[in-house]
Amino acid sequence: MLVRRAVVGDIDAITHIYNQGIEDRTATLETSPKSAAEIRGWLDRDPRYAVLVAEAEGSIAGWASLNPYDHR
Q1: How many Å apart are CA 36 and CA 28, to the nearest integer?
Q2: Phi-psi region for residue 19, left (φ > 0), alpha (ψ -120 to 50) or beta?
Q3: Residue 20: which domain range?
Q4: Up-side HSE of residue 7: CA atoms within 13 Å toward CB?
Q5: Could you write out the DSSP letters of every residue in 6-68?
Q6: Which of 28, 43, 49, 56 is buried deepest, with most CB atoms within 10 A?
Q7: What is the pLDDT of residue 2?
Q8: Residue 72 above 90 pLDDT?
């Protein structure tokens, strides 16, 4: 397994995984699915808020990100 910074080509996989967490209500406080365009915006944030992916056998198996503080 390779862990690396996410690139634009990973956005669809990240979006799919993120929205699964919204649908099953176990991984996020979000209530509405995110679009790929919304997720894409994460890559334009301050570099200290990295988006990482875990790649296994050429596929994205998971992702993680550091985020600015959110009062939620």
Answers
A1: 17
A2: alpha
A3: 2-56
A4: 4
A5: --GGGHHHHHHHHHHHHHHTSS-S--SPPPHHHHHGGGGS-TTS-EEEEEETTEEEEEEE---
A6: 43
A7: 96
A8: no
Structure tokens at 15: 């979006």
Question: Is residue 61 in some structural domain?
Answer: no
> What's the structural domain count of the chain?
1
Residue 71: inside a domain: no
Its sign, for the CA torsion 46, 16, 35, 31, is negative
Q: What global pTM score does this model have?
A: 0.87
Sequence letter at residue 16: H
> Is residue 64 a part of any domain in this protein?
no
